[in-house]
Amino acid sequence: MATLVLGMKEGDEFQVGHHCMAVDQIFSDHEFRLRHSSGIYLHIRDEPTNVAAGIWIRSGTRGQRHLARVCIEADSTVPIRRLTEPAQPSAIPAAALAANQPHSPSAPTTPTNRRAPG
């Protein structure tokens, strides 16, 4: 068995094998409810809960009030995917990404700032 721990907030989705699940509600730093794609709700605590053959889910330690630590235990051959990407603020302005140029805080990131080759 392999264990993967995902930090997830309410509404975040993941897939274990062919089973899609979402964090429905977070009750505390070690207790939350999952919604299975079949419509079943699972109350998850510190003790492992068998959600399908060979797939166990429990609450991880050091959770936060608005972030569930979902511990997924499954055979290492079972694919696990996060379906909702975690929000990570970008340090690079969108204009720099669009212009495909390095970001320099002192230089404006507009197309007029680019020099002609040569």
Tally the beta strands: 9
- Rg from C-alpha positions? 20 Å
Mean pLDDT: 79
Biggest beta sheet summary: 5 strands, antiparallel
Shape: globular
Low-confidence stretches: 101-105, 107-113
SSE class: mainly beta
Strand sequence of the main sheet, in spatial order? 5-4-3-2-9
The helix content, as a percent range, equals: under 10%
Strand content: 35-45%
Distance N to C terminus: 59 Å
Total number of helices: 1
Put the structure in a nutshell.
Helices cover 5% and strands 42% of the residues. The chain has one helix spanning 94-99; strands at residues 2-8, 13-16, 19-28, 31-36, 41-44, 49-52, 55-59, 68-74, 80-82. It is mainly beta.
Explain what this protein looks like in three dimensions:
By secondary structure, the protein is mainly beta. It has one helix and nine strands. The longest helix has 6 residues, at 94-99. The chain is globular. The termini are far apart. Residues 101-105 and 107-113 have low confidence and may be disordered.
Secondary-structure blueprint:
Blueprint: E1 2-8, E2 13-16, E3 19-28, E4 31-36, E5 41-44, E6 49-52, E7 55-59, E8 68-74, E9 80-82, H1 94-99
Antiparallel strand pairs: 1-8, 2-3, 2-9, 3-4, 4-5, 6-7, 7-8
Short descriptors:
118 residues, mainly beta, five-stranded antiparallel β-sheet, 1 helix, 5% helix
